[in-house]
Amino acid sequence: MQRRIRTLRLQAAAALAGLLTATALAAAPATAATPAPAPDYCGNRCHDILPPGENGNATLADILANRLLGTRPAHTDDQLGPYAALANSYPGLTDVGLRSFFNDASFGVPAGQVASTLQPRPDVTIVRDKATGVPHITGTTRYGTEYGAGYAAAQDRLWLMDLFRHVGRGQLSSFAGGAADNRALEQSFWQAAPYTEAELQQQIDTLAASGPRAAQAMADAGAYLDGINAYIDTAYSSRTFPGEYDLTGHIDPLTNAGSIDHFRLTDLVALASVVGALFGAGGGGEVQSAQVKLAAEARYGKAEGDRVWASFREADDPEAVATLHDGQRFPYAQPPADPQGTAMPDPGSVVPEKLVYDATGTGATTAATAAKGVLPGNLLTARHGMSNALVVSGRYAADGHPVAVFGPQTGYFAPQLLMLEELQGPGISARGAAFAGLSFYVQLGRGQDYAWSATSAGQDITDSYAVPLCTTDGSPATLASDSYLWHGRCTPMERLERKDSWKPTTADSTGAGSYTLVMKRTRYGLVTSRGTVGGTPVAFTALRSTYRHEADSIVGFQMLNDPAAVHSAATFQEAAQHINYTFNWFYADAVDTAYYNSGDNPVRADGVDPGLPVLAEPQYEWRGYDPDANTAEYTPPAQHPQSVNQDYYISWNNKQADAFTTAGFGNGSVHRADLLDDRVRALLGSGAKVTRSALVRAMESAALADLRGEDVLPDLLRVIRSGAVTDPALAGAVQKLETWRADGTLRRETSAGSRRYADADAVRIMDAWWPLLVQAEFRAGLGDPLFTALTGALQLNESPSGGQTGPVSGSVSANESIPHKGSAFQYGWWSYVDKDLRTVLGDPVAGGLGGPYCGGGDLARCRSVLLESLRQAAAQPAAQVYPADDVCSAGDQWCADTIVQRPLGGVTDGKVSWQNRPTYQQVVQFTSHR
């Protein structure tokens, strides 16, 4: 141990010496020769887009000018216009026309397009192009390449990077102010990934010792940090740092007194924990699922209640659209026929774990504040539907080369969470997007002759354990007891604390306050709630397989950037195997396409139901579980869903493959991935070869479609048209809906810039009708307790405006109330409505619900309740359906749906028409291969 500590100290001293040397070299004249351009096999057929713009840095003067004059720094929002314009221009799109809506993603910058050239060290050059200001970083050494990546990242995203290293530590309010959203966000992240500084460092040490690639990754990260810190020093001395540091009181705008803290390796782990929690986790809803099961049993009795619960759970629904459709089976986390070790909470006993202690001032209230947070308070707790992919095999593509249109749906922020970059250096050759502060490798993008992307998979890697409580003095345990049984021994819980305090600043007027965030940790995971099981007090915990391993995916990303590591579909899949986040990975080169589902999937004990809480006893633990390292046996790569050269792949956070179960509720017969699948199948079925523009048109048509209108409205109209509609008002409403259906049920402007939807009244009726029809169809049959429990597991609606929520229950419903976020139709009762109405209509239904609910299964009564709910919806004025907010006036339907780039700093951008589309998106077709 002493030798290891001495080694780490020597490494730290070496890093400091390297930083001093790098700082000195940064001022030295640049003499290194420019290396030869990297090979590029895309043949000018690679494009990308990332709104609003590359530049996320604004000085105090820039911020004031934006507020007073409406001006913005160059490249702040220049990708927003082309991105938005596709919504009205896609029907006539051609391959040549792609350049009007996407950037050229070829390697390098033509001589006439160079906007600036910078050499922060002699061994690296940062060239920015005139079109978008993207940094093209070329190094003659690996250290220099990564140093340049860090320098460019700080130039473009320093303030955002600083925000997120504090979010990842549960310290946002202390850094950016005590606004209610800031506090809500830091609380949710502290609940998901609380660590001491020593534990952050331990993750680095463990990773660095795991092999040569990991050791190289740590060296790369160190060089990256040196570049960040060199920029911080330069920007501070030249007073060109982001103006948010002035506005939040970190630096005095007059005297320049203050500081910007240098970044450390532990900051990168904190940043990685944010990315993993937002986009790469899955599961953890077992207690909520158990409460639905209890409500179903109370309504129907044990056997029938369990059948009803399982039918709404839709863990492995036979009608769900799957990414792999060639009959492949990849069994994972399936409900057992005879569950063992299930720990059902006693009805009404579950209470959430207390998080906030010792609150003072404004910290003692959860009321809304005048100041907005720098990030949405429910950024983590709101359920996310993220990213889509369309990939077509070369057998069906023009010129015989695969075509891909894919990208992550990471929300809309100003600046964006991601940044674009090109990295060229020894062992690194890639262009694409990376999360700010983690951009020492491109995380989603293209290499020399291949491209890759991901969608969030969300398979179940988090389990809930019911841990018996005890007292170390032998007295009776209560729900307040802070010790638990571990293998028969009464063991005190660990207490992880984060103290936060804040005071008013120019940016955040929230009054002074403070509190201590406390998470209790057991060897079965973090305590999330408490209750009783069979009368015994227990703590319900969340055990996530990637906890304590937030940075382990670094090796997989390194391989994806290395042309020697990835040069085929098989080597791509090998690289993806090194990523422990739950993602669906897609690949295309000039010959092959491929898919691989990544994640540390724990191997569970025989008989355990992953969808319910588990008794905290040795026989029900993950196989090979080591609580000290939080490791276990994981399913081997061969058992992960994967494929090469399927005719096409689509993904929109849907089911991966047959027998690969979903972690939540509602993944059934209607899913937004159907919008993609139907269009791509139609393309292939047409007999015409698929071009890049044709695949973009398919994507964009799906991006403007109302899922309810396309896939559920036909069922609704069949029920209604089973009899004559004699009421004139209802007949008019039905006719408007039928016209909208004939027009494609799109939410699209009448013409570019009109700010009015075609079929606007039908859209209004559908928006108002959905929550009313769901309640009319299900509430009476399920009963209030079960209906309420189900709305806690799956929200009724997720409309583009974030409104029309209907009754909600539980934190998952928070997603409904996020306005102007773009992503829509991921979570809702679409599948339940579809299956139930088809049952009432007498259609065959595979994996039907527990019984018919609409009208008790009687078609005439079902029609009656639907018509009455439609009558109520049609009577709602636009001002009721689309209430006013801080962006839109009441009744403005188009504005209610618009996408707003949520400002993370002082500069704001304009709103754009709604699209349900990836934030960063690539369009690629490689013409040759190494």
Which stretches are poorly predicted, pLDDT < 50 over at least 5 residues?
A: 1-32
Rg over C-alpha atoms, rounded to the nearest angstrom: 27 Å
Briefly note the structural class of the backbone. alpha+beta
**Total beta strand runs:** 30
Number of helices: 24
From the spread of the alpha carbons, the general shape counts as globular
Nearest-integer average pLDDT? 93
Distance between the termini: 47 Å
The proportion of residues forming helix, as a percent range, comes to: 25-40%
Strands in their spatial order, largest beta sheet: 3-4-5-12-13-14-15-23-24-26
Strand content: 15-25%
Largest sheet: 10 strands, mixed
Model description:
The protein has 930 residues and is of the alpha+beta class. A 10-stranded mixed β-sheet has the order 3-4-5-12-13-14-15-23-24-26. Strands 7, 8, 16, 17, 18, 19, 20, 21, 22 and 25 form a 10-stranded mixed β-sheet that branches. Helix 1 (2-26) crosses helix 8. It is globular, with a radius of gyration of 27 Å. The two termini are 47 Å apart.
